[in-house]
Amino acid sequence: MTVWHLDPETIRRYAQGAAPPQLAASAEAHLIACADCRAALAAHVDARRVDTIWHEVADRVDAPRRGWPERALSRLGVGEATARLVAATPTLRGPWLLAVAGVLVLTALAAQADERLLRTFLVVAPLGPLAGVAVAFAGGLDRTREIGLAAPYSALRLLLIRTAAVLSVTVPIVAAAALALPGSPWRAVAWLLPTAALTGAALALTARLTPVVAVAVVAAAWVLVTVPIAVAGHVDAAFGSGAQIFWLAAAAAVAVWLAAARDTVAINLGRTG
Amino acid sequence: MSTVLVNGVTKSFGRTTALDGVDLEAGPGVTGLLGPNGAGKTTLLRMIATVLAPDRGTVTLLGRDPSRPADRTRVRQRLGYLPQEAGFHRGFTVFEFVDYVAILKEMTDRRPRHDEVRRVVALAGLEPVSGKRIRALSGGMRRRVGLAQALLGNPDLLVLDEPTVGLDPEQRLRFREMISHAGEGRTVVLSSHQTEDVTALCARIAVIHQGRTRFVGTPAELTAQAAGRVWTDTQRAPAALAAWRTGDGTFRNVGDPPPGADLIPPTLEDAYLLLVGASEREVTAA
């Protein structure tokens, strides 16, 4: 049974971290056994500091070390909650990205041998990022879709976060494949503005359709318009300088609309019926 | 005021009618939806969880109309949902996954969010596996992870679709305890085709069969409907709706008993069999 107590000065110095090591060790051993001295110590301790230390300890114990994508995003200034949402984006899975990269690289390499395959690349290139947006919200691939649909998180914000995540990964893949294209350098970037405009159009359609259906509608329209153009060999009609201005205007229009309607638009991520 | 009010709800998928004029009312406590596979329970629960809209009829949740986007968000802020096939990001740990759902539930401030994640992880008995990857957990443990995420934020309305499916008897008992605890002071609507779970947990039940509400009331009221319609015999009664040999060698018959039959007290399962069997006969006759 404890019959003696720490004197107030020792408690004060211990609380401030100013006690010499031997005294601190002795005080600590006593505090473990003496409720009275612990109560006396509490008056000298900054509750907020203790709270902060406790959470740091609890986080080290409970919350596991974040994966490298989340850590990398945090270093780039992305908030930890947003980084977690990005990490859960179904599109950012190795097999899917490898499939996109494989198709595009093969098409780009084949274009070296045949001019028609170059046109095919330009038609197919925007479909990679676009399909990535659909995959990010596809029921069969987004395992937590049902739980997410019942959650109150802003559908527009989630849509933009995932779309940005998909584009930031798929666009470099397409760009890398495009570098292998033969001919003038503009062809390596001619697909960029159409991709931005098509993605924007799909985002705008999610006010009425689910992302998967919206992407399907936009992709179908793109293929229906560009395939006959590509077959006829009039690539400039879809990818020339005049067309590029059109795609830029379309992408800018969607961006302006999204900014203006962000508080009122109801995005449909999959509530059916 | 009822937390859940469903009036004349109809829902079809192509040519299949999943719900055909269903009514349901649920308030604080545990309300169970009982019915065979394909009865329409999951469709109804998905409507109560705001992920599915009815073709016709109205759904009112926590006094709000989920067909309006603003009301739907308000409802979702007070809702916990465990889907029948809850999917997980299997590469996440238990803590990371529950934390991810907490972010979707608008808990953006990291410290209180992590406190809440710890609370529900402890409630579901998952503390020892909090740092484990979900892909390494058993089916029962994953079900607990599903329940933990549903309990985030102390929701006023908890929707649990077949919460005990695939669990062994011990896990089911543990789950019953957790659900019973969750039902104190909030509205829980769960579905099951296990009459034992419903008997053990629910103050009110609704029997759904072939897209229609066949019964709404207490388990005792449903059981009472089978009074005088369960008997034992040395042989299977040809007229019985259902009959099976019990452990003592006699047959338990459920249906319309012959004169002088040795009547025994019915169970909820007997009453359920009679109700569902009668519905099927109606459909066959039609």
> What radius of gyration of chain B results from the CA coordinates?
21 Å
> End-to-end distance of chain A, in Å?
71 Å
Globally, the shape of chain A reads elongated
Largest interface: A-B, 31 and 48 residues
List low-confidence stretches of chain B.
none
Shape, principal axes of CA atoms of chain B? globular
> How many beta-strand elements of chain A?
0
Which stretches of chain A are low in confidence, meaning pLDDT under 50 for 5 or more residues running? none
The structure class of chain A reads: mainly alpha
Report on the biggest sheet of chain B.
Answer: 6 strands, mixed
Cα radius of gyration of chain A in angstroms: 29 Å
Strand order of the largest sheet of chain B: 5-6-7-3-8-9
Kindly summarize this structure in a few lines.
The complex is a heterodimer of chains A (273) and B (286). Chain A has 273 residues and is mainly α.
What report would you give on this structure?
- The complex is a heterodimer of chains A (273) and B (286).
- Chain A is mostly helical.
- In chain A, 70% of the residues lie in helices and 0% in strands.
- Chain A has 15 helices and no strands.
- In chain A, helix 12 packs antiparallel against helix 13 and helix 12 (192-205) runs parallel beside helix 15.
- The longest helix of chain A has 24 residues, at 155-178.
- Chain A is elongated, with a radius of gyration of 29 Å.
- Chain B has helices at residues 41-48, 69-77, 94-104, 110-123, 139-150, 169-182, 195-201, 219-224, 268-285, and strands at residues 4-13, 16-26, 29-34, 56-61, 79-82, 157-161, 187-192, 204-209, 212-217, 230-233, 242-245, 251-254, 262-263.
- In chain B, strands 5-6-7-3-8-9 form a six-stranded mixed β-sheet, with helices on both faces. In chain B, strands 11-12-10-13 form a four-stranded antiparallel β-sheet.
